[in-house]
């Protein structure tokens, strides 16, 4: 009995010692994710269905976390993508929570609806809604970037549920469903994608996608309309109506986009329709505004030499302009007085103002192309509600006569 009691005390003592040491024992060590190592070792996701990382020309990307938004599941959602009816309401539309199921992120350029034709009733539509099967497989090519997609989709038997893509011309390299369900992906003539199955259930679609890099931007060029993918002729009466409206309200036929070039009789887009971000309606606006240089040799010094008394202004400084873009007032960054054709003493607090047509009409000299400079602007404001956008101004030094400067002094 005494031996058993001694053994019990010994076990208790050992247990006490072990418990006292537990706090100093490191049971697990966190090892951060190493994407390059995953690529070298050809590591996969935990279920083995996808690579753990992909090396692309734009950098390494990893699978995204599962999205919370479910695509499909309502009759309105399944039918509303086929037509778009333009209206005259230019107010900011209702903004809903933006869901981005792709990695790398494509915010705010996720592609869910696209149109490739104008219908007889002036609505935008899809020319051919017949489902075209999307092949799955093949490697990402040299001119493409890879993306992961992770979508939750409510499948409907015998119907195509619209799902987003990363851009036009995207391809499916691999597709996995959780749970395992037979799902096919189809597309229409406007390259809208649909998930199709024979059962009604909610699934998780995990995708490996490849898309041409130029879909996300590149060299801006005036691409002929017949080379644009999916471009189709516009009904004659729609084109006539568009030309009549453009003529009545004085819209220049130079400011076109691919959707309006054919309407005004042009064969090419000039890329002039942009929005501040995905929450605003795209509006027509100029991508650049240039003052054409002199065709005959002319230097800034020669322009100054033709001024008896004036002010040499460099830079933009502060500015103000009315809502009609008629009356304006500008400053500058550096000012010098001109007397008898030569720049002299520096000046300060110089402002000049005029009316738009009068100001441009007073220009009587421009330096030649050797002195031309493009100047980028980040906040060109237009529209109601106001939208800011980037554009480029470009000019050579120019001379203006009779412009109001300072307190009404000419």
Describe the structure.
The chain has 410 residues and is α+β, with helices and mostly antiparallel strands. It folds into three domains: 37-86 and 98-216, no CATH class; 219-271, no CATH class; 300-405, no CATH class. 14% of the residues lie in helices and 30% in strands. The N and C termini lie far apart (120 Å).
Mean pLDDT score: 78
State Rg: 32 Å
- Structural class, by secondary structure, is alpha+beta
Number of strands: 28
Helix count equals: 6
Largest sheet: 5 strands, mixed
Q: Which ranges are low-confidence, i.e. pLDDT below 50, for 5 or more consecutive residues?
A: 4-21, 75-80, 220-226
Question: What's the helix and strand layout?
Answer:
Elements (H helix, E strand, L loop, with lengths): L1 H20 L13 H6 L13 E3 L2 E3 L8 E2 L3 H5 L3 E2 L17 E2 L13 E2 L5 E2 L6 E2 L10 E11 L6 E3 L7 E8 L5 E4 L5 E4 L5 E11 L23 H14 L23 E2 L8 E2 L3 E3 L9 H6 L3 E6 L4 E3 L5 E4 L3 E6 L2 E6 L4 E4 H6 L1 E4 L6 E10 L4 E9 L2 E3 L3 E2 L5
Parallel strand pairs: 3-9, 17-26
Antiparallel strand pairs: 1-2, 4-7, 5-9, 6-7, 8-12, 9-14, 10-13, 11-14, 12-13, 15-16, 18-21, 19-20, 20-23, 21-22, 23-28, 24-27, 25-26
